[in-house]
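Work Package 4 report. The design task specified in the project plan requires that, given a folded chain encoded as structure tokens, an amino acid be chosen for each position. We show below one input record used in the internal validation round.
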């Protein structure tokens, strides 16, 4: 099945091919026709499912079909996202799929943590605004943007927006929008809290739920090492060097630990940067971009920050510390070995954590032959 079946504008179809999208993902197959029809949509799907293109393509298709009007400070499409990283990622997808369209459709990301002035200026003439809630309200209050002409609203990673405490901001923003509009709400989970927002937003929505495929996790190569806390650093350096790992995502359980691990690696000649909630937005983004571009060998991340950032198909993921829940474990190791590329997820386990690790593996229906690092010969 190809994208042809959606009857998208030929220039959009050409852009999907240029992006290397051959077959629509399940969320795309189900969501694109619904959005094209103009119906409200509730999509339960995670990052990695292709959910972004599932709203970007039909939205661009709709904009191509109607006059864009004079340049103004009145975007026609608003996408609300929880984090700066996601704002940038979603904007990239809009831009990639807007190349060489018969009409110039302009998208832009706005988020906090950086100066507001350049954003205030650049909003003029923007058709699609991708925003974090706090910054959007600041821009609205200073009259840099007028939301009264928004025809399509997307709430992306709505569960995360609620977890980050954006509920009131979201409600305030929704009140600034025209009553008649199309709503698309995407969330990784369907929680009680979400159903409040859901009722507020969506009129008779089509609900699409994409279940995580167990098969994906079954395909990931897993290996594990018993290692004491004191020897984790040397073991990490040993594995990176011995296996000549060029792009490694390392997970720790706290930001402080992520800082320490990254600093120690760098000191030992392995370029690494930490990424976690306590880092400034610009530091997070710059580390992520370098890593994705292959210019940074190691990224050391926490679970909190790992959610919602689009890094997948990595050759190596290393759990320097075990996550608390099996869900987080699946989420972490799911970053590797997607689709055609083989990947390896390595987990460090202290003797005290053996039971906890067994519980995780049991939930995943997996078994790992553990290597005892005490028997390995590497520099302390
Ligand atoms: P998302 O879940 O929207 O963050 O997308 C995850 C990744 O899948 C992104 O890197 C997209 O570029 C990629 N992607 C989206 N749709 C497709 C598709 N139909 N075929 C191949 N890759 C895709």
């Amino acid at each position: 099945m190809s994208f042809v079946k959606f009857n998208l504008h030929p220039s959009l179809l050409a852009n999907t091919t240029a992006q290397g999208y051959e077959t629509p993902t399940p969320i795309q197959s189900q969501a694109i026709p619904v959005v094209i029809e103009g119906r409200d949509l509730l999509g339960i799907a995670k990052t990695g499912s292709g959910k972004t293109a599932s709203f970007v393509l039909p939205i661009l298709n709709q904009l191509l079909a109607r006059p864009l009007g004079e340049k103004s400070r009145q975007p026609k499409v608003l996408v609300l996202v929880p984090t700066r990283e996601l704002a940038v990622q979603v904007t990239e997808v809009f831009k990639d799929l807007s190349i060489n369209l018969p009409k110039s459709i302009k998208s832009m990301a706005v988020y906090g943590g950086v100066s507001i002035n350049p954003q205030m200026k650049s909003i003029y003439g923007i058709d699609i605004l991708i925003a974090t809630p706090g910054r959007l309200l600041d821009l609205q209050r200073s009259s840099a943007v007028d939301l009264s002409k928004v025809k399509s609203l997307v709430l992306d990673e709505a569960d995360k927006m609620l977890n980050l405490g954006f509920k009131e901001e979201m409600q305030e923003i929704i009140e600034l929008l025209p009553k008649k509009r199309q709503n698309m709400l995407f969330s990784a989970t369907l929680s009680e809290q979400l159903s409040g927002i859901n009722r507020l937003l969506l009129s008779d929505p089509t609900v699409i739920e994409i279940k995580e495929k167990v098969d994906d996790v079954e395909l990931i190569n897993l290996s594990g090492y018993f290692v004491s806390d004191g020897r984790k650093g040397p073991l990490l350096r040993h594995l990176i060097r011995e296996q000549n790992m060029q792009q490694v995502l390392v997970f720790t359980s706290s930001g402080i630990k992520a800082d320490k691990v990254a600093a120690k690696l760098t000191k030992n000649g392995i370029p690494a940067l930490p990424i976690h909630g306590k880092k400034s937005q610009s530091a997070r983004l710059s580390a992520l971009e370098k890593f994705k571009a292959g210019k940074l060998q190691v990224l050391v991340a926490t679970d909190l920050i790992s959610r919602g950032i689009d890094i997948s198909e990595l050759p190596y993921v290393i759990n320097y510390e075990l996550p608390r829940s099996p869900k987080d474990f699946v989420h972490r190791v799911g970053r590797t070995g997607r689709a055609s590329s083989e990947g390896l997820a390595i987990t460090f386990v202290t003797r005290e954590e053996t039971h906890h690790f067994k519980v995780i593996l049991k939930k995943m229906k997996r078994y790992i032959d553990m290597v005892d690092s005490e028997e390995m010969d590497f520099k302390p």
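The longest helix spans residues 51-65. Validation will be extended to a larger panel in the next phase.
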